[in-house]
Amino acid sequence: MPATIHADANPNGIAHEPECSIAATLEAVGDRWTLLILRDLFRGVHRFEALHRDLGIARNLLTDRLHRLAGLGIVHRVPYQDRPIRHEYRLTTKGADLSPALVALMHWGDRWYAEDGPPTLLIHDACGTPLDQAVSCPECNETVTPHHIRSRPGPGRTIEETL
Amino acid sequence: MPATIHADANPNGIAHEPECSIAATLEAVGDRWTLLILRDLFRGVHRFEALHRDLGIARNLLTDRLHRLAGLGIVHRVPYQDRPIRHEYRLTTKGADLSPALVALMHWGDRWYAEDGPPTLLIHDACGTPLDQAVSCPECNETVTPHHIRSRPGPGRTIEETL
DNA sequence: GCAGTCCGTTGCAAAACGAAACGGACCCGG
DNA sequence: CCGGGTCCGTTTCGTTTTGCAACGGACTGC
User: What are the tens digits of pLDDT across the range B72-88?
Assistant: First the structure.
């Protein structure tokens, strides 16, 4: 039996109730473009025009997504000139905190779709070594594979549907 | 400056060319429902009717997504009865390999949207300890934060646009 | 036969998306 | 001052994707 990542039966409101954190996350960033926009922000592409060019996203959608991300506190608008007052978009702590998720998505793509090897390597700035990502047990000090991951209701679970 | 997760300028074909593994991954599983379906598969919900009930997804979409996932080799259809021959959907290795991504997305939701604490805890089956996930450097034997992540073109990058 | 289960399809309206034109605020060279 | 060029949106409109709910098929069990 594979990893049990438990969750609930309600694909709704964003911080609307504690039900499933995966659903909550996808509510915030789980549309066709948002994670790509965030990828570009990590990558150093911060301005509207540059994002538009780089992603090929429709301008109206880009406007919408950027405002939405700002509203969610994932991104903030930093003025880089006045006069035609212009802002660039930068990750907040909350946004930067999505880094592990992007890393995980990238690793999966590397593994299953990069026939000629990864198009991009993530390396340690200090030593240049390609990085790993792993789930680990702080108690046992060992890496845990999906098969050894179990789940149980946490403190935030409402007392309903034990399923 | 936050983590640099570099990527390309083309949000296209799935295994269509090596450009950006994040885009490739999102091409495969980056729509509104797919990751939630996968979450349920991890969680032990394997049948059409159960997925439909649990997720509230439209039946036509569920059909479509499951077939798509099967086509991509992320899921396979296992007969569990003949006669009205019926299949259940199970993760392949490729599908199970998305575990780290789901874990990362869940952690982020836990951190930013679970006011009363995580609705679900992932624990080590051997000892019951809540698990961590981290990016680490195999050389330095230390955890690497987003700020210390750099990126560089890997072997799979086509020789174009140095940006 | 008749109800119930399970999976999937169909038809249609609503929502999201994509492309491209348009508008505003500016800078610059002539 | 005028005609470009840049940068950031907004608007319009046609195409896709969703969501919803009814329907159909293949059984089982009573």
Answer: 999 999 999 988 889 99
